[in-house]
């Protein structure tokens, strides 16, 4: 471990543990892709159509993850302890809450929501955050970053320190589209606001496979966030 990197890690860890006075973006990431059988900007085709014989929908539908998870991401190192948190009761990840100490992310959690699909479009309801990972005794403010309404987290990019501490995260969110009979996914795009502090560290990213969205997070944490990953799932529509 280089001397400068060790000093950065020690300062970051100490700063997360005290009440301070006072409080960037990554490079590009490949498209998350659209649902198999649906073009990136299509309004139909795709996953779990739920219309009747004439294409009408009797009840509102809920976007629901299913199948085995794909864990993606190469941002961060091997410090701390491993964690995994899945969204509950059919929710998907619609944002992240994190705390920045100017050297890295002290703690982080995912915000999970139900997406209700109906004639009025896509509604985001029933937010339920995962547990917080990182330093629970930190006094920095939690900064929320949300996907645009009707979109779900599908990718991320960011930077890490020389010691593998996560310094910066940018969310990439994919719009969910409903045509009354089937649900499809648009192409993921970056959210304007990022999480953390800009740095000259190494770049890392994670992209859900085509047709999948995040319904959980994973990584490693101790007194700071050491690694960040997404838990990606296929999605379908079921009666709400």
Q: How would you characterize the overall build of this protein?
A:
The protein contains 1 helix and 15 strands; from the N terminus they run H-E-E-E-E-E-E-E-E-E-E-E-E-E-E-E. The N terminus is likely disordered. The longest helix is centred in the first third of the chain and has 13 residues. The termini are far apart. The strands form 2 sheets. Strands 1, 2, 3, 4, 5, 6, 7, 14 and 15 form a 9-stranded antiparallel beta sheet that branches. Strands 8, 9, 10, 11, 12 and 13 form a 6-stranded antiparallel beta sheet that branches. The protein has one domain: Jacalin-like lectin domain (Vitelline Membrane Outer Layer Protein I, subunit A). It has 240 residues and is mainly β.
Average per-residue pLDDT, rounded, comes to 79
The overall strand count is: 15
Query: Any idea of the CATH class?
Result: Mainly Beta
Classification by helices and strands:
mainly beta
Q: Determine Rg (CA atoms, Å).
A: 19 Å
The low-confidence runs, each spanning 5 or more residues with pLDDT under 50, are 1-14, 17-53
CATH topology: Vitelline Membrane Outer Layer Protein I, subunit A
Count of DSSP helices? 1
Helix content: under 10%
Q: What's the architecture in CATH terms?
A: Aligned Prism
Largest sheet descriptor: 9 strands, antiparallel
């Amino acid at each position: 471990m280089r001397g400068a990197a060790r000093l950065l890690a020690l300062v970051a860890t100490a700063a997360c543990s005290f009440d301070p006075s006072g409080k960037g973006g990554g490079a590009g990431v490949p498209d998350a892709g659209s649902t198999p059988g649906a073009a990136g900007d299509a309004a139909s085709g795709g996953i779990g159509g739920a219309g009747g014989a004439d294409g009408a929908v009797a009840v509102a539908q809920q976007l629901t993850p299913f199948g085995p998870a794909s864990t993606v991401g190469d941002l961060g190192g091997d410090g701390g302890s491993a964690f995994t948190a899945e969204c509950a009761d059919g929710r998907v990840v619609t944002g992240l809450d994190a705390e920045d100490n100017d050297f890295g992310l002290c703690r982080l959690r995912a915000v999970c929501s139900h997406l209700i699909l109906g004639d009025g479009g896509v509604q985001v309801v029933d937010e339920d955050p995962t547990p917080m990972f990182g330093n629970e005794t930190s006094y920095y403010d939690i900064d929320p970053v949300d996907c645009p309404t009707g979109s779900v987290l599908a990718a991320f990019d960011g930077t890490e320190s020389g010691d593998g501490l996560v310094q910066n995260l940018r969310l990439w969110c994919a719009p969910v589209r409903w045509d009354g009979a089937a649900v499809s996914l648009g192409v993921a795009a970056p959210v304007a606001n990022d999480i953390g502090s800009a740095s000259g560290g190494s770049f890392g990213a994670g992209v859900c496979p085509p047709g999948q969205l995040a319904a959980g997070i994973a990584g490693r944490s101790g007194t700071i966030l050491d690694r960040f990953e997404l838990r990606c799932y296929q999605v379908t529509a079921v009666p709400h």
